[in-house]
Design a protein that fits this description.
Number of helices: 5
Protein name: DUF1907-domain-containing protein
Subcellular location: Nucleus
Pfam family, one: DUF1907
Strand content: 35-45%
Largest sheet: 11 strands, mixed
Order of helices and strands: EHEEEHEHEEEEEEEHEEHEEEEEE
Distance between the termini: 22 Å
Number of domains: 1
Helix content: 10-25%
Organism: Aspergillus ellipticus CBS 707.79
Main location: nucleus
Radius of gyration: 18 Å
Length: 318
């Protein structure tokens, strides 16, 4: 896989706390942000495959939406161990979390993926806690299951680290009062306002929708050949299925303040989610949908020092 490495100058966590205080306070009635020791994210409610978010912090943007639009490129299949190697992550230990398209070649149909895995003493020794969210062909209902395959297809955005405990940014937000309905976009736009288009600041981590309701989409199976290619963005969006799910929902997220001159073809924000209760709920996070005063979040993020752009398509957006 062709890989371009882009070192980035990450602000300190303390600087990021100062930067994000105002935009969070403007959008939520109750908002706190601080640098804290990362809790053990293997525990409920997060159920991650690794304890923390520290050590050799990197983000990978693999493939892209151009591998789906105007027609799916079914040869774009990415084993997670190969991605970790392309990121030059340690084989001794590490972890990947994030958002992508599922391994349709194993599942038997197109689906959403919430990557959540770690390894120790070799890339083959994987603890795979990844979730797959799909639309059942028979009932058209959402189905959540654990993945049996450490792989993905088409596109994936990943936060990688050694999975060690260490300092992270903790954010709590409740009772939205501002116009930004997306928690991740509130954070991202706050970074963009502070650092501008010419500097990239990239965060990865996990957050919990701990009260209220949010909207998600789940990709159904690929359209038939007669229905392809997708003619425009509107047709692609109409093909997706949309769902509102109640808390609790665990969300694995990667976001960037900007892609300077769009040189890296970055997907600027990508968040995939699953029910920690094992209910058939999850998918691609969009925003809160119920009465704003009911929504609540708890988040843990760390800043990446390197972006790895892997197998970038010639066209980078749908």
């Amino acid at each position: 896989m062709h890989t371009q490495k882009h070192p980035i100058s990450a602000p300190s966590l303390e600087e990021l706390v100062e930067t994000l205080q105002a935009p969070l306070a403007a959008n939520y009635e109750h908002a706190t942000i601080s640098v804290v020791p990362c809790p053990d994210l293997r525990n409920a409610p997060f159920h991650l495959a690794t304890e923390g978010l520290s050590g050799d912090e990197k983000i990978a943007d693999v493939g892209g939406q151009a591998n789906l639009f105007p027609r799916p490129r079914l040869d774009c299949i990415y084993p997670m161990p190969d991605i970790a190697k392309a990121m030059e992550m340690s084989s001794a230990r590490g972890s990947l979390i994030g958002a992508g398209a599922g391994p349709f070649h194993v599942v038997g149909q197109n689906c959403e993926l919430a990557p959540n895995l770690s390894w120790q003493d070799g890339f083959e020794n994987i603890n795979n806690q990844t979730r797959i969210v799909q639309i059942r062909r028979d009932t058209r209902e959402v189905n959540l299951q654990k993945s049996t395959c450490p792989g993905c297809a088409l596109m994936v955005n990943l936060y990688g680290s050694l999975g060690e405990p260490g300092p992270v940014i903790k954010i709590t937000a409740k009772k939205r009062k501002g116009p930004e309905k997306s928690f991740t976009e509130c954070i991202r736009k706050g970074l963009l306002a502070a650092y501008g288009e010419s500097r990239t600041v990239s965060l990865g981590g996990a957050f919990l929708v701990n009260s209220g309701k949010a909207r998600f989409h789940v990709m159904p199976d690929f359209p038939s050949e007669e229905e392809l290619p997708f003619k425009d963005r509107k047709q692609l969006e109409n093909w997706l299925t949309y769902h509102d799910f109640e808390a609790p929902i665990v969300c694995l997220s990667v976001l960037h303040s900007a892609d300077p001159e769009k040189a890296m073809g970055l997907r600027i924000e990508h968040t995939h989610c699953f029910s920690p209760l094992g209910e058939n709920a999850g998918g691609h996070y969009h925003y809160d949908v119920n009465a704003a005063e009911e929504i609540g979040y708890e988040a843990y993020f760390n800043a990446a020092k390197v972006i790895c752009r892997i197998d970038m398509p010639e066209a980078t957006s749908a």
